[in-house]
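Hello forum,

I keep getting stuck at the same step: I have a sequence, I want structure tokens, and every attempt I make locally crashes halfway through. Rather than fight my setup again tonight, could one of you with a working pipeline run this one for me? It's a single chain of 125 residues.
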Amino acid sequence: MLIYLIGLLAGILSGMAIGGGTFLVPALVFLLGIEQHTAQGTCLAAFIPTAAVAIITHYRQGNVNLRLVLYLIIGTLSAAIFGASLANTFDAASLKKIFGFFLIAMGIYELCSGTKGKNDQNKKG
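Reply #2:
Ran it on my machine without issues. Output:
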């Protein structure tokens, strides 16, 4: 039952483009005891259908810049292959620390840049 709740919360976060993986990976590791590499790989695979639904929804609402997408694909595909290969060179404990550092760094960034999003929303309204 816990896995369904974890999936539900991760799906909601992913659909909101907040980053369901930032919740899903730690939940799989700490709540279900899954090894870090497996949790990260499982997370990526689980988000394929979730991402497809979110992409369609955002596209229909006019929130997708196709030119920007094409530019991003060029870099992200090769970098994803490199990143996945690099992750496999680390032991689970090191990978867990790297992932945790990334989450902390992103949290600090979000806290420090929190007013930017509010200003952008005010400009649209």
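The radius of gyration is 16 Å. If your local run keeps crashing, start a new thread with the error log.
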